[in-house]
Amino acid sequence: MTSDSRLSWRDVRDRIHEHILTGRYGPGDRLPRDADIAEELGCARSTVQRAMQDLSDSGLVERRRKGGTRVRAEPVTRATLDIPITRREVEQSGARYGYQLIRRRMAPAPRGVVAAFGLGASRPMLRVEALHLSDGRPYIFEDRWICPETSPEVNDLDFTEESANEWLVLNKPYTRLDLRFYAVSANPRLSDLLETEPGAALLVIERTTWVDDAPITTVKAITTPGYQLLTGS
Amino acid sequence: MTSDSRLSWRDVRDRIHEHILTGRYGPGDRLPRDADIAEELGCARSTVQRAMQDLSDSGLVERRRKGGTRVRAEPVTRATLDIPITRREVEQSGARYGYQLIRRRMAPAPRGVVAAFGLGASRPMLRVEALHLSDGRPYIFEDRWICPETSPEVNDLDFTEESANEWLVLNKPYTRLDLRFYAVSANPRLSDLLETEPGAALLVIERTTWVDDAPITTVKAITTPGYQLLTGS
DNA sequence: TAGTGGTCTAGACCACCGG
DNA sequence: CGGTGGTCTAGACCACTAT
Questions:
Q1: Which residue, A125, A220, B2, B92, is the most exposed by fewest CB within 10 angstroms?
Q2: Residue A60 dihedral angles phi and psi, to the nearest 5°
């Protein structure tokens, strides 16, 4: 009478989402048990479970054993961000990619790097500074520190042709990642490297990665004016 | 002999992840069929499926019907971002939250707003400018446009006590979201409002939301110097 | 068209945690 | 302790797409 085909977990998800949009379930309200929803809709409990997992992933509801499922009282704006390899990013914009190593040398990790990794004390690390170019013009300046204990291979790499960005992403999978975004004013050196006016506002993307608590690398990707980071949604 | 308890999908995920880390499966390589992995590990295929779903969500592998599962050739750095309501953000930092409406009026949507929504032509919208304070000092300046057709309730709200940020997040769930981040230099008005030096570099978080292609709101959250956006990971 | 992942089901047991 | 979500299984069928 009503529907001929089975309910998919997306259907179930959308129905519940609809109820939340409509206000049938408001912030903080408790939803029926999965089993009850399943019975009401005429599907298996695991289908409801799959739908709820999705709603939970998107931050719309919170689930607890015994506590049940509740609409999140303090909603958050949740989004997924994809940061591609810089070379790919440039090429996909239709421009010609270029790369230029600025400096490569061992040095004791400064305080900021020690803090980013959560280490107790400083230690010697490999610092690699490089410039990514788009159609020959500066695109991103990369100031990177690599932990040689975790990646001994870097001692044999000079990073004159291939960027550390690319080598690490391809060869050093991580198990933990910290990302942060902020803005800085171009100091004289940066405005020189990036060919911008002194004091220009630059978006900085800072990434730190670990393998099982062993620090791999931390990098500040300092972008050129006008650069925008978008969600993939 | 080997193991007494069942494999969980996390175990399966970690094993495969390990194989990718080790290089047993390199970028672009094809992994065995789910069914074969299940048999090899002695678990149900759906357990492998659950593990693979997770690896796929984190951008480590790509799955296609008939094409099988492959290690992503061009890896991306993928992260999930949670942006809380500004009031909560301030309060959780231990500071006292304050709010101040700067201006509220109807106006024709400028080109940038029309473009953000993907509309064909301009139309009158409600513009709300407001300041969020942390311990009495400027924290974030919010420049927002609201589409009154989608949210007619805003005609009866003056936003002098409650911020549009909070009202919208609590009362206007969205089905689509666009996020972008970039840096701007403080112009005279911004440096005045935010009590910063003229030309200071500021991180801007731009959010646009829709319900089923109907535009709800677009907002530029212009932060104060030093503000950092972090991943929840 | 055939191979592979995607989903649904029904049932069972487990893990967590609120009352 | 008991209620609820989390997971695993075995099997079936479907949907997509590479070959």
A1: B2
A2: -85, -35
CB of A33 within 7 Å of some strand C atom: no
Give pLDDT tens digits for B101-117: 999 999 999 999 999 99
pLDDT tens track for B152-210? 999 999 999 999 999 998 888 888 899 999 999 999 999 999 999 999 999 999 999 99
Residue A130 exposed, middle or buried by CB count within 10 Å (0-12, 13-18, 19+): buried
pLDDT of amino acid A232:
67
CATH top-level class of B86-223? alpha beta
Report how far apart the first and last C-alpha atoms of chain B are (Å, whole number). Answer: 37
Which of B59, B178, B203 lies closest to A183 in CB terms? B203
Question: Average pLDDT in the A18-29 region?
Answer: 89
- Give residue limits of the domains in chain A: 9-71, 86-223
Contact between residue A143 and residue A190 where contact means Cβ atoms under 8 Å apart: no
Domain spanning B9-71, CATH architecture: Orthogonal Bundle (1.10)
Structural contact between residues A72 and A59, judged by C-beta atoms closer than 8 angstroms: yes
DSSP A154: G
